[in-house]
């Protein structure tokens, strides 16, 4: 979840100038975040380049935050790179809250994010994340 600088942020690891906490994520970000959570607690802030994020390590906590802040999170400013091609009309992340948006969220929860679906494509997701992390390391 991106945050503004004027909000009080939870604690997190100290930051290296310019690159911030990017190096701390390592080759397996999920493992690095789990280790950081043991030190800094289940809610922590990280700075990834110029972007400050808040990480929630407990699934129930993340779900609660997303459910209680759905209107704030779904009505974010739409980047020009998205709006130029009208992608905000078809991208769930940028759609305004509406009956269609709520219906799509229900479909996602019952079909895409169901345990059965997540288990079925776990290997594919793992490979994609490994490729992304590898690309980041190669670009350094």
Automatic annotation (TrEMBL):
It comes from the Eukaryota. Its EC number is 1.14.-.-. One of its GO terms (molecular function) is oxidoreductase activity, acting on paired donors, with incorporation or reduction of molecular oxygen. Gene3D superfamilies: Cytochrome P450. It holds the Pfam family p450. It is an enzyme of class 1 (oxidoreductase). Keywords: Oxidoreductase. This is 7-ethoxycoumarin O-deethylase.
